[in-house]
Structure formats: C-alpha cells, structure tokens
C-alpha cells in the first residue's frame, strides 16, 4: 500500500509554532500578521477584543501603530455590524469606501491609508465573539473565499484573547 503524504500549511505551522514562544502575545500576533498578509493580504491589520459588559472594543495589536495604536478603545454602537459580527459571529466584508462609511466612524482615516475594503473575522469561543481579526485593503480586495481562509488564523488568536497579558 502506498501512503499518501500530506503537507502541512507552512503559514498555519508558523502561527502554531509562535504560540509556543515565551514572548506572548506579541509573538503570536506578529505571526498572525505575517501569515494573514501572505495568505489573504492587507494594508492595515488589527486585532480587537470585545467586552460584553462595557460594550467596548480594545485594540490589542496593530501593524500600523501610528494611526492605530494598540491600547485604543472605542464604544460600539448597536447596529447591523455588531449584530452580525458580535452577536451572531458572522464575518463582515465591506467591499467599497461607501460600505466602510456606513459602518465605521473612522472611515476617513481608513481611506487616508489607502484602504477601501475590510474583512472583520470574529474570534469565537463557546458561542461568544471575544475579538476579531480586522484586515483592510484596497477596494474590492476581499471576497467570500477569504472568510474560509481567515477562519483558522482567527481561531489561532483565541489563547491570547482568553489569557490576560
């Protein structure tokens, strides 16, 4: 019998290896940034956590710390985006600047960075959205196939979102 050899995805392996490093969560977040950029693409990449009790989002990672520093917080207004991403755990794709304008109050800053599309990928645990990976790029960059490609990377962020720094 001939055994078929399966090759592991090198990007997922790099993220998995980063989880074992002692310099957490920085090692994991940087590995996710690199892997998601290679697999899907982004100009701006952030990771947010969500607090059900306060209704706030906190930025725990950003590849562009000048305009989007880690530690930034914002109150989330109820609406279709929060219902989809936070309540139901569905990914959100905004394909154009108009899409971003209807959802994000900082759409002008996003546009100034050359971004006009977004993929917000929830990180879920036990039926709750604990955070999200947020990929932003030029208009019409993201499509439905990117949701499936991003899901394993989002879930690899879970230990860092469950464990206080």
Description:
With 165 residues, this protein is α+β, with helices and mostly antiparallel strands. It has a single domain (10-162), classed as GAF domain (Beta-Lactamase, 2-Layer Sandwich). Helix content is 38%, strand content 24%. The protein contains 7 helices and 6 strands, in the order H-H-E-E-E-H-E-H-H-E-E-H-H. It has a 6-stranded antiparallel β-sheet, sandwiched between helices. Helix 1 packs antiparallel against helix 2 and helix 2 packs antiparallel against helix 6 (144-156). The longest helix has 14 residues, at 26-39. The mean pLDDT is 94.
Main features:
6-stranded antiparallel β-sheet; globular; Beta-Lactamase; 38% helix; alpha+beta; 165 residues
Indicate the CATH architecture.
Answer: 2-Layer Sandwich
Q: How many separate structural domains?
A: 1
Which range does the strand content fall in?
15-25%
* The CATH homologous superfamily: GAF domain
Order of helices and strands: HHEEEHEHHEEHH
Q: Kindly provide the name of the CATH class.
A: Alpha Beta
* Unreliable sequence segments: none
Overall pLDDT, averaged?
94
Shape assignment:
globular
Number of strands: 6
The value of Rg in angstroms is 16 Å
The SS-based structural class is: alpha+beta
What's the total helix number? 7
Largest sheet: 6 strands, antiparallel
Helix content: 25-40%
According to CATH, the fold-level topology is: Beta-Lactamase
Q: First CA to last CA: what distance?
A: 49 Å
Strand order of the largest sheet: 3-2-1-6-5-4
